[in-house]
Amino acid sequence: MTAAEPLPIDARKQAAAMAALELVEDGMQLGLGTGSTVEHLLAAIAARGLDVSGVPTSEATEAYCRELGIRLLHPSEVERLDLAIDGADELDRALTATKGGGGALLREKVVAAMAERFVVIATTDKLIDRLGDGFPLPIEVVPFAEAPVTRRLRDRGYEVRLRTAGEGPAVVTDNGNHLLDARMVGGIEDPAVEELWIAALPGVVECGLFVDLVDQALLADEQGRVLSLEPEPS
Ligand code: 5RP
Question: Which of the following is catalytic: 39, 62, 90, 108?
Answer without folding.
Answer: 108
